[in-house]
Task: inverse folding
């Protein structure tokens, strides 16, 4: 089956033969253009083309019968039209072929300097009066120039198209003539990114607003990176995306070019669009400079981000696993640095004051942690690393952070006590609401220390009737009591170990114990210390009440002591 190109060539050659061989004079030259050959008359071509005239008269052959014009812009199809022009045969000039005809006229030197009303003049008139009089026409001509470079650039067709589009696009942006008002951005999307950059630069010089330029770039990106960039609802435009980033070499280069064209105004681009660009940049392995530029832009307006926006950057396209979270950390760090600089500039104390933007970001980050907490790729260090980027003063309450921690502990049930304490270390239990404290006091997943914090704070409130925030004295008292409870826990653990040890000795060495007991009965003299008394003295050194009213380490073991039930202490565990 013949290809479409060969079919068009055959048709063109057939039509050329009809109007050539209808002449009475036989042909005397064969013109070769790529794979096509045309039998023509020298005198008809010489009358219009200075280039062909030079080839014939400067040839070393006395009667040149074959000319190769394979380098003509537009190929055989455009040469047919140029040859028809030489023969005076009518043909149609359109916005699709005018650029190629103009370049062919330049290549064949069919200018008005060589012959009046030549092909170059005819195409110039069409460009000025028809093609460049509308945005659609100019865009079509510019699109056709992509295959005509560098000649189309040399004869200024490209620049004329760029100037016409820039001017008319600015007029459309200010005074729309059609609906929707940004219809022209869709038509721009067919152009090469290099032409887009030149058009946007021309519009900027003519005073176009940043929002107008951003609208054109967003439409261009969504059309040319279809399937990689999500729309504004957060949905992917295509359902199936390959995870092989090596397939997207063209997309990587295109994305990097788009990022370099983004307007500098921070409010020009919606943050969800920037998040989509960054997630695409991570996926296609764009350059570090490209990703850093997007991260800086997002961090500047992070207070407008939503949890869904952060999730867009965090997951693979199938949503099954997390990306590397370094970009998220850099974005949050950049925002905190910006807030710190603003506080210093305004003369405030960054450690004591928090802006409304910081409060919003803190709430968003905590909710984001709750969404990703169930994924096994999220280690404790990554979880804490993101949580600690937001300083504790930015959180009025820790309820969202507590929810994220609880989800993490539930999703990772194999964590030991130390690891659970490490997870909970990013949270201040004293900043939980009453409902959250009530839940935490009954939460078996939390470490004991956190539960004690919440219980003790509730007792302080009931006794003092204070507001919802503890004072420094209460916090200090709580810390000392928690320390005391932990020492009691250690003491109880040692006692349990000792009892188990003695039980083992009694079972395994029963006969030896009887012998030792008989020998002790017949031996006179002062009482010797037993293993039990030695262990008691050792444990006494761990006694948290030493040097207090209940200290008994100075009492001789041989003196009888009246043992009474000690007064019950708060938080003692017996």
Result:
């Amino acid at each position: 089956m013949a290809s479409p190109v060969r079919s068009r060539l055959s048709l063109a050659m057939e039509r050329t033969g009809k109007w050539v061989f209808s002449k009475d004079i036989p042909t005397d030259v064969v013109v070769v253009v790529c794979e096509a050959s045309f039998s023509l008359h020298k005198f008809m071509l010489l009358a219009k083309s200075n280039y062909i005239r030079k080839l014939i008269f400067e040839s070393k052959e006395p009667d040149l019968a074959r000319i190769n014009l394979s380098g003509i812009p537009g190929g055989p199809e455009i040469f047919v039209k140029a040859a028809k022009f030489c023969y005076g045969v009518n043909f149609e000039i359109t916005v699709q072929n005018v650029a190629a005809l103009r370049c062919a006229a330049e290549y064949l030197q069919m200018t008005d300097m060589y012959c009046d009303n030549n092909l170059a003049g005819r195409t110039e008139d069409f460009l000025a009066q028809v093609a460049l009089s509308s945005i659609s026409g100019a865009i079509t001509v510019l699109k056709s120039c992509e295959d005509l470079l560098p000649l189309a650039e040399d004869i200024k067709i490209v620049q004329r198209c760029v100037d016409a589009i820039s001017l008319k696009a600015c007029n459309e942006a200010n005074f729309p003539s059609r609906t929707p008002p940004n219809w022209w951005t869709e038509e721009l999307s067919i152009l090469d990114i290099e032409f887009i950059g030149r058009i946007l630069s021309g519009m900027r010089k003519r005073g176009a607003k940043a929002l107008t330029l951003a609208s054109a770039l967003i439409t261009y990106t969504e059309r040319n990176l279809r399937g990689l960039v999500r729309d504004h609802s957060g949905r992917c435009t295509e359902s199936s995306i390959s995870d092989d980033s090596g397939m997207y070499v063209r997309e990587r280069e295109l994305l990097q070019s788009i990022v370099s064209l983004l307007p500098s105004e921070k409010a020009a681009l919606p943050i969800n669009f920037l998040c989509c660009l960054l997630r695409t940049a991570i996926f296609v392995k764009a350059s570090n400079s490209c990703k850093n530029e997007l991260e800086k832009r997002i961090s500047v307006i992070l207070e407008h981000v939503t949890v869904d926006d952060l999730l867009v950057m965090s997951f693979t396209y199938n949503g099954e696993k997390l990306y590397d979270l370094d970009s998220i950390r850099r974005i949050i760090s950049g925002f905190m640095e910006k807030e710190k600089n603003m506080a210093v500039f305004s003369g405030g104390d960054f450690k004591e004051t928090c802006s409304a933007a910081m409060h919003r970001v803190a709430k968003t980050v905590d909710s984001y942690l709750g969404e990703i907490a169930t994924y096994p790729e999220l280690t404790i260090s990554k979880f804490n690393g993101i949580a600690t980027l937001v300083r504790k003063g930015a959180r009025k309450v820790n309820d969202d952070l507590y929810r994220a921690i609880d989800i993490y502990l539930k999703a990772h049930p194999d964590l030991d006590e130390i690891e659970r304490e490490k997870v909970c270390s990013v949270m201040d239990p004293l900043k939980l609401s009453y409902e959250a404290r009530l839940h935490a006091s009954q939460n078996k997943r939390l470490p004991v220390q956190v539960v004690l914090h919440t219980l003790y704070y509730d007792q302080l409130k009931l006794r003092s009737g204070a507001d919802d925030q503890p004072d420094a004295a209460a916090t200090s008292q709580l810390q000392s009591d928690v320390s005391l409870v932990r020492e009691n826990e250690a003491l109880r653990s040692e006692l349990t170990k000792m009892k188990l040890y003695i039980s083992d000795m009694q079972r395994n060495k029963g006969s030896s114990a009887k012998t030792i007991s008989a020998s002790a009965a017949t031996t006179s003299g002062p009482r010797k210390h037993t293993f039990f008394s030695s262990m008691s003295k050792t444990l006494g050194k761990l006694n948290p009440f030493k040097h207090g009213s209940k200290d008994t380490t100075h009492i001789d073991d041989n003196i009888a002591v009246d043992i009474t039930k000690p007064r019950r202490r708060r938080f003692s565990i017996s």
